[in-house]
Amino acid sequence: MSTPSPFNPFANVDFSKFDMSKFDVTKMLGDMKIPGFDMQAIMDAQRKNIEALTAANQAAVQGMQAVAQRQAEILSQAMNEVSTIAQQLSSAGNPQEMSTKQAEVARKAFEQALANMRELAEMVNKSNTDAFAIINKRVTESLQELKALVAVK
Known about the structure:
mainly alpha
């Protein structure tokens, strides 16, 4: 058995066995009375902060899922187009016709890739904007709550 560290009294404590379900911060701090300090308002504000973070995370995850789904659709569409293009190129008669078809295919592929990248970038931007709006709204509300608490004193 190791000796306890004088610098860290918790060095040998196994925190994985600590049951957080029996630790109720609101009950512990709810009975604490400090003049001019509204513990319930602080607890409510923190609850709202956590709710806002949860909502922002959900918005971000939904946005990432939408982007991933669209990427899968783009990949599927691209694979179908590759098959069609391969058939078209195999039916080309002479080398000049083959070169013309290849140039047209390359131009269309480049335009489609740009359109897809633009669409995905817009989706990511919208997702980020939505998540940030949730956080921004909560920060504004929090500042208003703090201003109201200070004004009462």
